[in-house]
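Reading a protein record of the kind used here takes only a little practice. To see the layout at work, look at the sequence and tokens printed below.
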Amino acid sequence: MLIVVVVAALFGIWRCRTADYFKWVAVLLVWMVVGTTLFSLGGTIADPRGDGLITRIVRRASENRADMGIYALSFLLLYWGGAAWFVTMMVRAYRSRTVETGVERDRRQRQTIETLLVLVAAGAWGLLFWF
């Protein structure tokens, strides 16, 4: 999940520096975090303790029968379909960006610092859920 947002943010830092593009990156991050929290926090059939909030309710209501398969398929289509739509909006923002008239002197240094910050944040996020 996080890799999609990190790649999109890095692309924005190095290629497309528009506010519209980063708006869609933020929306994608919120979509993925909220979707994961509500639906799939790593639960399995054998160990449902990691179910998301809504998944836990559906599992109890369906008594863990075949309805869960339909629910899981619906979730996957909606979750990744939404993520694909947000990536499409990022591509549109990239294509419609305006050409910069001025060239910044310290652009490479700023891009490198922003890249390191994104990677450190992604590493911290990964460690948060690893342990």
The chain has a mean pLDDT of 79. Residues 2-98 form one domain.
